[in-house]
């Protein structure tokens, strides 16, 4: 009687052990399959996809912030094909939502590109200095700011708050910086010569127009 009970107990434990192992193997196979699917082209991923701007930033929603910011139009096509690194890069003009072919817009001009985001504290301090620098140099140099976050409405409201009215590109995907091989830091400034070549990349913040003029020197 005792032996029979012991055998039955052992047999029951064995069955439970086997069942647990089978379940674990099934779960492992399912997990491996899921990982394999995620690595396949076109598979779903939990990594957020960079966007030009938020879904909430519709033309209607941006109309008010754009009016408050009062930004100048983005530059039209210049003379020549423009900087080779920027050819094919198309972003949005924050002033009116129009498409800007960046290389064409900057062609034949000496340009200071300022890369920023509405939440970047050093950027907020630097933008008024960029505007003052533009006033100082006049048409000899064109200062263009590039907003590198998808929250376009916040960028427009920030510019309105600061009273900064410079041509601004909305570049939530950071395509301009990537094309120019600028490190992912903000603020950062890129100086382009009139022939489209990169004179300087300055991954730092400026506190005054004097600092900007000293750093840029005769390159712009």
List the helices and strands and how they pair.
Layout: H1 2-39, H2 59-69, E1 90-93, E2 99-101, H3 102-106, E3 111-116, H4 121-137, E4 142-147, H5 152-162, E5 168-170, H6 175-179, E6 188-192, E7 198-202, H7 209-216
Parallel strand pairs: 3-4, 4-5
Antiparallel strand pairs: 1-2, 1-5, 3-6, 6-7
Helix pairs in contact: 2-5, 4-7
Key attributes of the depicted protein:
disordered N terminus, seven-stranded mixed beta sheet, 7 helices, Glutaredoxin, 220 residues, globular, alpha/beta
Describe the structure.
The chain contains 7 helices and 7 strands, in the order H-H-E-E-H-E-H-E-H-E-H-E-E-H. The chain is α/β, with parallel strands linked by helices and 220 residues long. It folds into 2 domains: 1-47; 59-219, Glutaredoxin. Strands 2-1-5-4-3-6-7 form a 7-stranded mixed beta sheet.
Please report the total strand number as a whole number. Answer: 7
- Between the first and last Cα atoms, what is the distance in angstroms? 99 Å
Could you please say which CATH topology of the largest domain applies here?
Glutaredoxin
Which range best describes the helical content: under 10%, 10-25%, 25-40%, 40-55%, 55-70% or over 70%?
Answer: 40-55%
Under the CATH scheme, which architecture of the largest domain would be assigned?
3-Layer(aba) Sandwich
Strand content: 5-15%
